[in-house]
Amino acid sequence: MAGLLNAVVAWLLTTLFFQTFAIELDIDSPDSIRAAAKTVAHGLQSIYNGNQTGGTLGKFPYPPYYWWESGAAWGGMVNYWHYTGDDTWASVTQEALVSQLSETNDFMEPAERFDLGNDDQAFWALAAMSAAEYSFPAPPAPHPDWLTICANVFNDYVSRWNTSTCGGGLKWQIYPENNGYTYKNAISNGGFFQLGARLARATGNQSYVEWVNKVYDWSTTIGLVDSNYNVYDGTDETINCTQVNHMQWSYNVAMFLYGSAVMSNYTNGSDLWTTRTTGFLNAAKTFFSPFSNATDIMFEAACETQGTCNTDQFSQKAYMSRWLASTAVLAPYTAGQVGELLRTSAKGAAASCSGGADGTQCGSRWYINGFDGSTGLGQQMSAMEVMYTLLVNSTKPPAVISGNENVG
User: Fold this and answer.
1) pLDDT in tens, 139-176
2) 406 exposure class (CB count in 10 Å sphere: 0-12, 13-18, 19+)
3) Which of 120, 131, 304, 397 is the one with CA 20 to 30 A from 201?
4) In contact, 196 and 155? CB cutoff 8 Å
5) Taking Cα atoms as reference points, which of 331, 329, 315 lies closest to residue 386?
């Protein structure tokens, strides 16, 4: 009985501590949103050691963070800069992105050969694409501009489109010695699709549109995207892609959602791309409302309620938030639904950011009204992004970049 009493007292003290030090967020106050997002961004940057002795420039510490997640985090920081107007980490973000460009200016870093897949490259490229669209400080000479870098990656993908099996598709892995070389997955092909859509809108180059349609059609024909716009993890060329792994992850549908929204905007709201955008938005709701008393709160459906998410998966709510908000900008007919999902999720995220010595480290489960003991880069990134996206109504849309129509 004494043990039970002690446990209850400990729980009460812990709860009171977290409530005292949790991040305060007024979802209707831009100043409060900026302050909360900055606190979380500071926690994210405290994990980065790439500009310190023993670290690698541009990379968050590995282990546990693979190279792709570093690129994803810097993409989040570019968006943070754009949404909030806070340039505190602009220089370190630019330095990090440039550090991983490689000699070929396409994020094909030789040191990452052991874990460099098409999807990994995509997250760095999409960070650079945001930098191009938002006029983020350009890379220093002799590097080309952000848009050219993205075109380089796109051309890499074109050269890797593999028609020897499955009628096309990008493999997950680039190098034959890496596990997963025969797997053709949604996130790699979705990355190709979204990058192409954004390049098409930015430049007006029709060749990008042709590839966007090709990748989308292949993804639906193979079954990575079904008739209800659910997006499944992947398939394998060893069986000629005749069966699909039906695991669903939030970043897959979010990737296709934003690519479709970009195309909806580019085609002036065509019925085809509007229908697809709406379909993916509806499918994305798989990743909201984990329980009846947690309506509209985001969660990673395949692992979060079971407590089985790994380091990579903790970050995936960041991309859902990022691309939901971006979708609302370019496809305004989605804004009402998107806004409610982000506002409710942001409140839950703020409540989760009550851990650590300073009481502001963020957890992973946003529906428990508190900190769940889980911390890391993915948790910080996810909370930061769902917070800054609340500024979506006052942010400028991605630019159409004239003078680059022949890139690609």
Assistant:
1) 999 999 999 999 999 999 999 999 999 999 999 999 99
2) exposed
3) 120
4) no
5) 315
